[in-house]
Amino acid sequence: MELTVASGAFIVPDGVRVTGAGSLESAFDVTGLAVASIAAAAQALAELVHLRGAPLPAVTVDRDVASAWFGMSFTPDGWQLPSPWDDLAGDYPCGGGWIRLHTNAPHHRAAALNVLGLAPESGLAQVAAAVAAWEGEALEAAVVDAKGCAAMMRSRSQWLAHPQGAGVAAEPLVRWGSSRRVPPAGKHLGKGAPATHARPLAGVRVLDLTRVIAGPVATRFLAQYGAQVLRIDPPDWREPALEAEMTLGKNCARLDAKTASGMDRPKELLGEADILVHGYRPDALAGLGLSDEEMARQYPGLLTVGLDAYGWSGPWAARRGFDSLVQMSCGIAEAGMAHFGKDRPTPLPVQALDHSTGYLLAAATIHAWRERLAGQVHPARLSLARTAVELMKSGPSNPDAPVPSVEPAAMLPEETRWGPGLRLPPAVQVSGVVAATDVEARGYGWAPPVWPAIPANPADAVPA
């Protein structure tokens, strides 16, 4: 699975039809990345349908709708979502340039304030003054060592000269692990009703151990095409701005992995799952007794697909990170500042590394599922930083292109636990394949940590 850039723009694979004319304004081809990554996931679906003996379905991607899905797909009607950002999260001048503090999670906020020697109630002005007294790389290292999240702004050349940047650049877009043979399953393997041409992932159980955009985007895509997704979060995880985005199509439960009983249940769920999608850093699963070797021994038929922020090799492989931090580290924010003539870091117009990696993760999962049906278990890993390598091969957006737009009439009414709203229509059409789910967005922790019953007829799981 590869992405292709020619003359500064992403090229969609042969056989994919593209409609729409909009482009997000950026120093890079962000809309092209959206189209290419969504097309990759859709093509993987088409190939899965073809495996069942049907003709290869046609794939069509709309540029305007794809651009919109890289932002927020859900718009409340008569109520408002909270801000996705903590009041201290942002970019600050420091010795040597700029640094970004990511403080959305309470423990990340506390780590940054502790390093800066500030009280919990400190405001922006106090944080800015404290940051200004630090040299950027020293503050970055101190916050990370305190288990917080920060990123110094680097140029592209500085990143490529950095051991982590050089390591990520040498990685493949999808890092496939060692494969193993298991008994083949023909055209169906899932624990429930068999898949159909219209619902190619029906009956497939996906355990979702991801958070914050990229992983949830991947499992949302899988759910929309029939997969049964069970998401597990810790008891204290809160993300109110994104719950309507990231819980669509999923049964969402809570477990405390810090207790013996809380860790036993995920292991039981793994024994009943077909696919594990996780966002743990390379050392984190091993710390829970679920190293790659241990999972292969305990669950030989389980397909595992993982992602992280900074790649799977190099000195930062275990570093916590988010889209906005990777943009600072790898040169994207600095390139945007130069391109637009700004005096501060200028990120992408959307969190494109998250969203693109999510769709590429879904594509890799579906490709690996096809192999699993034939008796081959082939784990895969992706990272935000490696996706950034692909994006930075492209050039600026077309200045003459219109701003992407979606007609209000095309939006789909949707009820959620918080109130009504409108959801974007699918950005991609795969002929003969239905994109739908009967599990509305309900937020985190609403379901018990068990696999729900699967309808005898997969069509029963699709709204009429």
TrEMBL record:
<dbReference type="InterPro" id="IPR023606">
    <property type="entry name" value="CoA-Trfase_III_dom_1_sf"/>
</dbReference>
<protein>
    <recommendedName>
        <fullName>Acyl-CoA transferase</fullName>
    </recommendedName>
</protein>
<dbReference type="InterPro" id="IPR050509">
    <property type="entry name" value="CoA-transferase_III"/>
</dbReference>
<dbReference type="GO" id="GO:0003824">
    <property type="term" value="F:catalytic activity"/>
</dbReference>
<dbReference type="InterPro" id="IPR003673">
    <property type="entry name" value="CoA-Trfase_fam_III"/>
</dbReference>
<dbReference type="Pfam" id="PF02515">
    <property type="entry name" value="CoA_transf_3"/>
</dbReference>
